[in-house]
């Protein structure tokens, strides 16, 4: 198991990100795509296989190490971090829940980043309420047949493998669907508010025939098993990416406020600006600590880990939105211009309050856990 210490790594991740992502993130955003050469670099660096064991070509990170990697990537580019998020969710699901043959078939490809994976839960009428998925998987003698439509599939434009959540006669189940299966149709979604380079797609499944072992995890019980586990990874990844976003907002605001002197006095000398900086700096550290706590609890298999991940995601995403709003404010008109980094952070931060469970859903879950704790104390 690779830990933060053995990975070495905030510094290593930062060097990679500064060379491969930071200079190009605005271009990716404008072109609404992460180019193949960047995906190749991500694969070569091992970042795509962060949660995959070293025996399958991955980095074998624990969640603390993954969180640091995804924070560093999120500091430069939320779109690329989103691609890592869904790839990690699917990789983890294959590792944890796929049949041994199926796991061996896919895990090396995922770990080495030779294919990208996407997670397909959301539908036109199923978003926050995952239990209401309508896509179907019908059992037949030699396997399954899938029908339905999945929306907002991050990385769907380039994914080679999809983890698709469907309803069977036993309940909600998860299936591994290769891109080349007949009946699968991918339609790019463009013009998004944020994470514009995350290559989101709509995925239609029209009679996709799959072998019996395409089922991942227990038939009918994917919600408390595969989906819950994958979403834990996804939320921690998004929360960690939001810490990166917070840091990026803070760094940009420090630079700009020290340089800009509208009335002969640097912005950084005004107390009202300093208050914004103080809030950003404090919330960045608080969000980072919540992520570290959540990852540590999850790594230890502590049952408190899931609530800790919800708290980290809720706080980090809302704090990122506050920081991005103030970063644009500090930058004035230049923060509203096309290609401005802080404008991109602002658009990306809004998306973070919606994906992997909206802030309202996080609040409901955190409050329910608090009441449970009260009744059991
Ligand atoms: C850029 C982007 C990428 C995405 N990538 C993926 C992906 O890879 N895979 C995937 O499966 N999905 C993905 N999604 C979908 C995302 O997970 C959903 O948008 C999210 O779960 C919310 O669902 P919804 O949009 O249907 O909103 P709805 O469920 O319709 O909710 C709308 C609003 O109502 C609020 N609300 C809902 N229920 C309650 C309640 N009980 N109490 C109070 N308020 C409530 C919500 O908080 C939200 O503010 C992505 C979305 C975006 C924007």
Automatic annotation (TrEMBL):
Domain called Acyl-CoA dehydrogenase/oxidase N-terminal: residue spans: 10-114
E.C. designation(s): 1.-.-.-
Cofactor: FAD
Record SUPFAM superfamilies: Acyl-CoA dehydrogenase C-terminal domain-like, Acyl-CoA dehydrogenase NM domain-like
MF terms in GO: oxidoreductase activity
Domain Acyl-CoA oxidase/dehydrogenase middle span(s) in chain numbering: 118-206
Pfam families the UniProt entry points to: Acyl-CoA_dh_1 (PF00441), Acyl-CoA_dh_M (PF02770), Acyl-CoA_dh_N (PF02771)
Protein family according to the UniProt entry: Belongs to the acyl-CoA dehydrogenase family.
Name of the molecule in the record: Acyl-CoA dehydrogenase family protein
Gene source species: Paractinoplanes rhizophilus
């Amino acid at each position: 198991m690779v830990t933060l210490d053995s990975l070495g790594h905030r510094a290593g991740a930062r060097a990679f990100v500064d060379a491969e992502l930071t200079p190009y993130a605005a271009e990716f955003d404008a072109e609404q795509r992460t180019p193949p050469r960047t995906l190749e670099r991500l694969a070569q660096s091992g970042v795509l296989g962060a949660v995959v064991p070293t025996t399958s070509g991955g980095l074998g990170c624990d969640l603390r190490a993954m969180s640091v990697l995804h924070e560093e990537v999120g500091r430069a580019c939320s779109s690329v971090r989103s691609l890592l998020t869904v790839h990690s969710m699917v990789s983890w699901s294959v590792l944890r829940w796929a049949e041994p043959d199926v796991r061996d078939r896919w895990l090396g490809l995922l770990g080495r980043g030779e294919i990208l994976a996407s997670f397909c839960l959301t539908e036109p009428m199923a978003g926050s309420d995952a239990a209401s998925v309508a896509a179907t998987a019908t059992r037949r003698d030699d396997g399954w047949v899938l029908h339905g439509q999945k929306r907002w599939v991050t990385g769907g434009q380039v994914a080679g493998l999809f983890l698709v959540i469907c309803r069977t006669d036993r309940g909600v189940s998860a299936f591994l669907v290769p891109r080349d299966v007949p009946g699968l149709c991918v339609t790019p979604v463009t013009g998004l508010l944020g994470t514009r380079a995350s290559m989101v797609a709509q995925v239609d499944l029209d009679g996709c025939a799959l072998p019996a072992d395409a089922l991942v995890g227990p038939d009918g019980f994917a919600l408390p098993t595969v989906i819950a586990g994958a979403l834990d990874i996804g939320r921690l990844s998004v929360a960690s990416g939001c810490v990166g976003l917070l840091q990026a907002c803070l760094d940009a605001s420090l630079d700009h406020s020290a340089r800009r002197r509208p009335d002969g006095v640097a912005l950084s000398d005004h107390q009202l600006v300093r208050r914004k900086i103080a809030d950003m700096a404090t919330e960045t550290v608080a969000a980072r600590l919540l992520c570290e706590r959540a990852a540590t609890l999850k790594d230890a298999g502590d049952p408190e880990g899931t609530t800790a991940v919800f708290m980290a995601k809720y706080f980090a995403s809302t704090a990122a939105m506050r920081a991005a709003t103030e970063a644009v404010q500090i930058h004035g008109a230049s923060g509203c211009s096309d290609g401005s980094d802080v404008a991109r952070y602002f658009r990306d931060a809004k998306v973070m309050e919606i994906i992997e469970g909206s802030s309202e859903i996080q609040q409901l879950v955190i409050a329910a856990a608090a009441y449970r704790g009260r009744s059991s104390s």
